[in-house]
Write a structure and sequence with these properties.
alpha/beta; 7-stranded mixed beta sheet; 10 strands; about 55% helix
């Protein structure tokens, strides 16, 4: 019943938001983001802790709290994006997108071993995946399993229509290596909650527990491990950032290799994220208290 109400609300919101002027939609998003910050203490606390760790400042620092508030405003703007652009035409990406570093994707695909494209929850990776798919890149994305079939279709169908191939979390273990062996792109985010198989890495000034899956797949397949992010440059324009591939070497000590590769990946993503820190969305506990 509850998920049915969420689905109906989402359909109604998409209908109205798509018809409002952009400035109205994104102004409302700021109000909603402020409300999340003020009235959802768990989310506020986790966002503040993550921002403080990334810039290595105390959680009580005024700038940390202002940044965390802007993060939640930008999250609300991301939700507006979802409603405004369910099926963007190729011309939308040509007009509103700039992607830096596509040469790294092209060079990696030329090697024939696939790409593991990794990101934090930064900006609007969903639109980034649609942009790459629209440009002809063979993108596969891991998506959450929703218990509501209607809500799942509402969220996932636009991604599939853009050309992305979707892999449900519960099916991921059997499909990921096959994607890379077909020399395709596997897109995933590594600051997700519920990390089971992971390693402790330095994230800014604190420690976090992040998954070793990308490092394992890179070692097993020879696929290139590439950091990325998709950030907003105005209400309606975006910039994709594709970084240099992470160095992946096997020393014979698997545990240490996984730690080093995961730390290098984290460092690269931190470098991207700190430039656009108010577009980072962390609602769950990420930082390890010591």
């Amino acid at each position: 019943m509850r998920k049915g109400l969420v689905y109906r609300f989402a359909v109604a919101a998409r209908f109205f938001v798509a018809r409002l002027p952009a400035w109205v939609s994104y102004t409302l998003a700021i109000v909603i983001g402020d409300a999340i910050y003020l009235f959802w203490p768990r989310v506020r606390r986790n966002m503040i802790k993550a921002v403080a760790a990334l810039i290595d400042q105390p959680e009580k620092d005024r700038q940390v709290r202002k940044t965390a508030r802007r993060c939640l405003r930008n999250f609300a703007r991301y939700v507006v994006d979802t409603f405004r652009y369910p099926h963007p035409a190729p011309a939308f990406f040509e007009k509103n997108f700039k992607i830096i570093g596509k040469e790294y994707l092209d060079a990696a695909l030329a090697e024939g071993k696939g790409i593991i494209l990794v990101s934090f929850h930064l900006g609007n990776l969903d639109l980034g995946i649609k942009a790459l798919s629209s440009a002809g890149y063979p993108v596969n994305a891991i998506v959450e399993n929703w218990q509501s079939g209607q809500l799942d279709a509402f969220l996932q169908h636009p991604r599939e229509k853009a050309g992305a191939k979707l892999i449900k979390v519960k099916e991921a273990s059997t499909n990921l290596l096959a994607v890379l062996r077909k020399n395709e792109i596997l897109a995933l985010m590594i600051d997700s909650p519920n990390c089971v198989n992971g390693v402790k890495v330095k994230l800014g000034g604190k420690w976090a527990f992040l998954p070793t899956g990308p490092a394992i797949m890179a070692l097993r397949t020879g696929a290139r491990l590439i950091p990325c992010g998709l950030v907003r440059t105005s209400n309606t324009t975006f910039e994709g950032i594709i970084g240099q591939p992470i160095e992946v070497k096997a020393s014979g000590n698997l545990a240490e290799d996984l730690r080093l590769i995961t730390q290098s990946t984290t460092d690269a993503l931190v470098n991207i994220t700190t430039q656009f820190i108010d577009q980072w969305f962390i609602f769950h506990p990420l930082i390890i208290d010591e």
